[in-house]
Structures are given as structure tokens and as C-alpha cells.
Design a protein that fits this description.
4 strands; four-stranded mixed β-sheet; alpha+beta; Glutaredoxin; 227 residues; 10 helices; Glutathione S-transferase Yfyf (Class Pi), Chain A, domain 2
């Protein structure tokens, strides 16, 4: 069986991507939760993940003795192992475009990710408003995301970015979480897409898990006092 190592569901955006992809498409897997207690070499988290992943990060997919620790590599491996689940769009051009936008997410949007880290249980509109006011790079990231999503939804007719659910929607699910937490302003078509993403059973299950954790980690939330 597939085994997926993840961090806290409230905070770990990278863990969310393959977990949602597996859960939403109905691929059976075992979840191994390694809770964050710090990221120093002596933390229990680093010791636990370091025992299975040389990079010392989550997520990690384990299958038949093979360990895969990059989210895009995990997505590609799952697509190869389970071709009937159509994790990427069927049409070649759409598939290339989906890979492109996932790679853009993988290496980009650093301003948004830094100013608005994922925190599903929180509502932080003031933090979002200040980030947009004071950080032009956050404004640029948000504009790019809106333009990308609007264009894909119009081109493929929805309800997801490439018509049906794909790796791309799993990849951008944590961005949806950020836009909601920080109440970043987006047009109505993007709000509707965000609602559809949150309504996906796989995404809803992750959100429910995040809300059930009730764990405040001050090193993950330097922008607020304990709720």
C-alpha cells in the first residue's frame, strides 16, 4: 500500500497537495502524521522525517520500498501508477499547460507564500490587507493567480481548472486556503472556483482534519498571539 508522510494539516501546504490528490481520486493510502514541534535538527519532527527522507521534509510517498519526496515527483509517480484515474488532463496541450502551472506554483509565488502562510483554522483579513498594501510582490502574485485561474476556467469551461479535477486543482488547493484565510480580494468567478474546491470531498476532509487539530505553534504563526 502507498504510505504518505505529512505534517500538520493546518499548516503544511505541501503535504496537502498529494494528500488531496490521493483522497479525491479514491486511491487507497496510509497516512503517517509527523506533527511539527520545531524544525531544528534536534526536533522530534526532524528526527522522524530524517529517518525516511534525506531532505528532512514532508511530504514523502513510500511505495514498495521506493521513497519519493518531491510533490511534483509524487504527482507524476501516481499518474504513472494509476493511469485510469486521469490525474493529468487527457489532451496533450492541456496536459502540458497543467504541468506548466503546477511547476510555476512549485517554484513561484514566494511573496504570497511568505506573507500569507497557510493557516486553515485562522481568519486574518488584517494581515492580508497589510500585505497587499505594503508588499507590491504580493499584489503581483495575486494578480497572476487571478489571471491564470480565470483564463483556465474560461478556456476549459470549469468546474475545475482543466474541466475535471486534476493535479492542478490539488496543487492550488493550499492557495485557495490562503486566499480565504487572509480574505484577499478576488473576482466572482474566482470566488466560485474557490467554493467548488472547498466542496470537493478530498479538500473538505483535509479542512476537517486541520480544524480538528487545535494546535497553536508560535513558530508557524509569528503574526498573532495564541487564539
Amino acid at each position: 500500500m502507498l504510505k504518505l508522510y505529512i505534517g500538520n494539516k493546518n499548516y503544511s501546504s505541501w503535504s496537502m497537495r498529494p494528500w488531496v490528490l490521493l483522497r479525491q481520486t479514491g486511491i487507497d493510502f496510509e497516512e503517517v502524521m509527523l506533527r511539527f514541534d520545531g524544525f531544528g535538527p534536534e526536533s522530534q519532527f526532524k528526527k522522524a522525517i530524517g529517518a525516511v527522507n534525506p531532505v528532512g521534509k514532508v511530504p514523502l510517498l513510500e511505495h514498495d520500498g521506493l521513497r519519493i519526496w518531491d510533490t511534483l515527483a509524487i504527482a507524476e509517480y501516481l499518474a504513472e501508477q494509476f493511469p485510469s484515474h486521469a490525474l493529468w488532463p487527457a489532451e496533450k496541450a492541456a496536459r502540458a499547460r497543467a504541468r506548466s502551472v503546477c511547476a510555476e506554483m512549485h517554484s513561484g509565488f514566494m511573496a504570497l507564500r511568505s506573507a500569507c502562510p497557510m493557516n486553515i483554522e485562522a481568519r486574518l483579513p488584517q494581515v492580508g490587507a497589510l500585505a497587499l498594501r505594503d508588499k507590491p510582490a504580493v499584489q503581483a502574485d495575486l494578480q497572476r493567480i487571478v489571471a491564470m485561474w480565470s483564463g483556465l476556467l474560461a478556456e476549459h469551461g470549469g468546474p475545475m481548472l482543466f474541466g475535471g479535477f486534476s493535479v492542478a486543482d490539488a496543487y492550488f488547493a493550499p492557495v485557495v486556503m490562503r486566499l480565504k484565510t487572509y480574505d484577499l480580494p478576488v473576482p466572482s468567478d474566482i470566488l466560485a472556483y474557490m467554493d467548488r474546491v472547498c466542496g470537493l470531498p478530498g479538500v473538505k476532509a483535509w479542512i476537517d482534519g486541520a480544524l480538528a487539530e487545535k494546535t497553536f505553534l508560535d513558530f508557524e504563526e509569528p503574526y498573532r498571539l495564541q487564539p
